[in-house]
TrEMBL record:
Co-factor remark: Binds 1 [4Fe-4S] cluster per heterodimer. The cluster is bound at the heterodimer interface by residues from both subunits.
Residues at which [4Fe-4S] cluster binds: 28, 53, 114
Domain annotation Nitrogenase/oxidoreductase component: ranges: 28-413
Protein name: Light-independent protochlorophyllide reductase subunit N
Keyword Oxidoreductase: yes
Catalysed conversion reaction: chlorophyllide a + oxidized 2[4Fe-4S]-[ferredoxin] + 2 ADP + 2 phosphate = protochlorophyllide a + reduced 2[4Fe-4S]-[ferredoxin] + 2 ATP + 2 H2O
Function, as annotated: Component of the dark-operative protochlorophyllide reductase (DPOR) that uses Mg-ATP and reduced ferredoxin to reduce ring D of protochlorophyllide (Pchlide) to form chlorophyllide a (Chlide). This reaction is light-independent. The NB-protein (BchN-BchB) is the catalytic component of the complex.
Names of the cofactor(s): [4Fe-4S] cluster
Gene3D superfamilies: Nitrogenase molybdenum iron protein domain
Biological or metabolic pathway of the protein: Porphyrin-containing compound metabolism; bacteriochlorophyll biosynthesis (light-independent)
Alphabetized Pfam families for the sequence: Oxidored_nitro
Length: 425
């Protein structure tokens, strides 16, 4: 470990974690396809689901399709549900047609849904069968995007976890290397890749942009999570002997510095060299954040549980923008992955794990926060009651990690406040 200059002292971990169970209002894991299909450029996501599933992805992705989309839905219809048609035969036919029409596909994900699970369609066997018949040109994997009991970011976790057993093995004698885990916008990935190169840390990213370029994994792999919702992926990586570097997430100037520093410490980067590499980015981030500080300082923020990004976002808003946290809801709290984030929250912060929609709505209405971060379904009713809202899903679609996106992250939270001021004027 290097003797780096300490960052501002963390608050005592006086966070109060409560748990709630009850009615939920979340999107399912199919939503992840909307950002994943742009990330792995020669992959295709074939949802095996109903018309509802098709509508969900179409409407979630509707505004973002600029080119031929790399996802589709194989619709399970009444004949399939009644057991009249052979679903496996139909699936093989659909996949065959798809690969014929789109020869650029190198990796095909069969994405399970509630209907495919109800009829117990075994997509892992289908993926094995299709992988054999399409080898060596196309690899077929499967994961589930279904779920009433899941959160929409779990789709990415399930997708990346399905990739891990396929990663090439890193030779036992290989030098230690860093793996950054979690889908990042290309622009963010490029910035981090440059910083790691300047620090002299050999770094690769999961997922890679192309199916054939996925990083190797082995006991010399140190991995750094770029997203806080990758429980299953982390477990699979550890089964392949990779070791996690504990860090907060790269949101804001402070989060980004602490995240990079975790890697620098693990790879023995000289403290002065680290400071010299990160200083320009830190400066740009702080300058960008200063523009929004006045608007966010002292604002009372309420997080509904939705994306699992809530704890790192709350940390960013409270420590870097001086916002006040009324309540931080999160659908699921991975205590180990979020331990550093929890330590940075101000003492007395209430973190609510799970969801009981009516109770949370009551608390939110009573608290009348300046800003409510919530799912799409809750935003309209709350806006109608005069509350300013931010859709949490937007924080997944927008590049927000790293120094050069810190200002954009702050601006995303300012936007609803500015809009309401205009409406009031
Ligand atoms: Fe709805 Fe399930 Fe399809 Fe998601 S997977 S759209 S929850 S039916």
């Amino acid at each position: 470990m290097n003797a780096h200059a300490p960052l501002p002292a963390a608050a005592d971990c006086g966070v109060e974690v409560r748990q709630e169970r009850g009615q939920r209002a979340v999107f399912c894991g199919l939503t992840g396809i909307v950002w994943l299909h742009r990330k792995i450029q020669d992959a295709f996501f074939l949802v095996v689901g109903s018309r509802t599933c098709a509508h969900l992805i179409q409407s979630a992705a509707g505004v973002m399709i600029f080119a031929e989309p790399r996802f589709a839905t194989a619709i399970i219809d009444e004949r399939d549900l009644a057991g009249i048609a052979d679903m496996n035969e139909e699936l093989d036919r659909i996949v065959g047609r798809l690969i014929e029409r789109r020869p650029g596909i190198k990796l095909l994900f069969l994405v399970g849904s509630c209907p495919s699970e109800v009829i117990k369609l075994d997509l892992s066997r289908a993926a094995l069968r299709l992988s054999k018949s399409l080898a060596p040109d196309v690899r077929v994997l499967n994961y589930s995007g279904s779920g009433i009991e899941t959160t929409f970011t779990q789709g990415e976790d399930a997708c990346l976890a399905s990739l891990v057993p396929e990663l090439p093995p890193a030779p036992a004698e290989a030098e230690a290397a860093l793996m950054v885990v979690g889908a990042l916008a290309d622009v963010v990935e490029d910035q981090f890749a440059r910083i790691f190169a300047e620090l002299g840390i050999p770094a690769r990213f999961l997922p890679a942009r192309r199916a054939g370029e996925m990083p190797p994994v082995g006991r010399n792999t140190r991995y750094l999570l770029a997203q806080p919702f990758l429980t299953d992926t982390a477990r699979s990586l550890e089964e392949r002997s990779a070791k996690r570097l504990s860090a907060p997430f790269p949101l804001g100037a402070e989060g980004t510095t602490r995240w990079l520093r975790a890697a620098a410490d693990a790879f023995g980067v000289d403290a002065q060299h680290f400071e010299a590499v990160v200083a320009p980015g830190q400066k740009r981030a702080r300058r960008a954040l200063a523009q929004y500080q006045e608007r966010l300082s002292g604002k009372r923020v309420f997080f509904f549980p939705d994306s699992q990004l809530e704890v790192p976002l709350a940390r960013f808003l409270s420590r870097e923008m001086e916002a006040e946290l009324v309540e931080v809801g999160t659908p699921y709290l991975h205590r180990a992955h979020l331990s550093e984030e929890l330590e940075l929250l101000p003492s007395g912060t209430i973190v609510n794990e799970g969801q009981s929609l009516d109770d949370q709505m009551d608390r939110c209405r009573k608290a009348r926060p300046d800003l409510t971060v919530c799912g799409l379904g809750l935003a309209n009713p709350l806006e109608a009651e005069g509350l300013s809202t931010k859709w949490s899903i937007e924080l997944l679609f927008t590049p927000i990690q790293g120094y050069d996106q810190a200002g954009d992250l702050a601006e995303l939270f300012c936007r609803p406040l500015v809009r309401r001021t205009r409406l009031e004027v």
